[in-house]
Amino acid sequence: MTSPPTESASRRPTRQRAALAELMAETSEFLSAQDLHSKLQSRGDSVGLATVYRNLQAMAADGDVDVLRTDDGECVYRSCATDAHHHHLVCRECGRTVEVEGPAVEKWAAEVARANGFSDVTHTIELFGTCTSH
Amino acid sequence: MTSPPTESASRRPTRQRAALAELMAETSEFLSAQDLHSKLQSRGDSVGLATVYRNLQAMAADGDVDVLRTDDGECVYRSCATDAHHHHLVCRECGRTVEVEGPAVEKWAAEVARANGFSDVTHTIELFGTCTSH
DNA sequence: ACCGTGTTTGACAATCATTCTCATCTGAGT
DNA sequence: ACTCAGATGAGAATGATTGTCAAACACGGT
């Protein structure tokens, strides 16, 4: 994102937040809030659904997790591998994800925006494809 | 879109479809299905909400309208100005939209995909900014 | 260790866009 | 006019996300 990082307000550490963070840390695929919630349940770390949503939003605002929307509009989350701005190439069969950087695109986006007199530009770029194993 | 055009099955012409198509033709901004539905109502062309959804989906599948998702997940539609593949630069204040083409991005997307062994790639690219009048 | 206070949580209700159901209607060919 | 598959509409159903609010909790001061 090109947007200024919505600065992380001081958040208080809690068992629930920790459980969620830990789960996300060991997962590499994108999961929905609902998925994460039930994974926590079955693992014994009971956390309310609303809490999962609240924390995911907070983490996303702080840039600690990536968010993207599936074709059917559901939000899916995944912990960032890098701090840097990046995009995703997702396999529509198995969900395997590759984080890609695109200096070229960033530049293009900025230029297009400037050329049209738009300021404060952000962009959404996601690539979907089918990976080799399919 | 890079995806093969889901070929338009033969669609039967109906009053409802015509009304919707006409409304879209005279509108240049992105509107949600709900918006379109109520505009049709207040204009006298009564059309069921489900029908609006069905037709919008059909039109989108045929590539007759552009679809994109607002930040809060709502789908918004607009008739395409061009047949060609393109993306949008949308003002987050007033909704003004500019259709942009990006040979550079298309190429980038294709290359990134190939480099990672993905085939059959499609992409989602939207730019949001604030236009001059704000 | 004990309190007071401002956060965070959880259970559940409420929203709300979108989809489904299914009986009825309509367009097009005969 | 007759028929039938595709289209429509009213309303119910779905399902993710958000709102509510009382109870539980973390933290700094004592």
From TrEMBL, chains A, B:
Keywords, alphabetical: Cytoplasm, DNA-binding, Iron, Metal-binding, Repressor, Transcription, Transcription regulation, Zinc
Biological process terms in GO annotation: negative regulation of DNA-templated transcription; regulation of secondary metabolite biosynthetic process
Keyword Transcription regulation: yes
Main location: cytoplasm
Residues holding Fe cation: 85, 106, 123
InterPro entries assigned to the protein according to its UniProt record, in alphabetical order: FUR, Fur_C, WH-like_DNA-bd_sf, WH_DNA-bd_sf
Pfam families per the UniProt record, alphabetical: FUR
Cofactor: Zn(2+); Mn(2+); Fe(2+)
Keyword Lipid metabolism attributed: no
Listed GO CC annotations: cytosol
Binding locations of Zn(2+): 91, 94, 131
Comment on bound cofactor: Binds 1 zinc ion per subunit.
Subcellular location: Cytoplasm
GO molecular function, one term: transcription cis-regulatory region binding
PANTHER family to which the protein is assigned, alphabetical: FERRIC UPTAKE REGULATION PROTEIN (PTHR33202:SF2), ZINC UPTAKE REGULATION PROTEIN (PTHR33202)
Family assignment from sequence similarity: Belongs to the Fur family.
Subunit architecture: Homodimer.
Protein name as annotated: Fur family transcriptional regulator
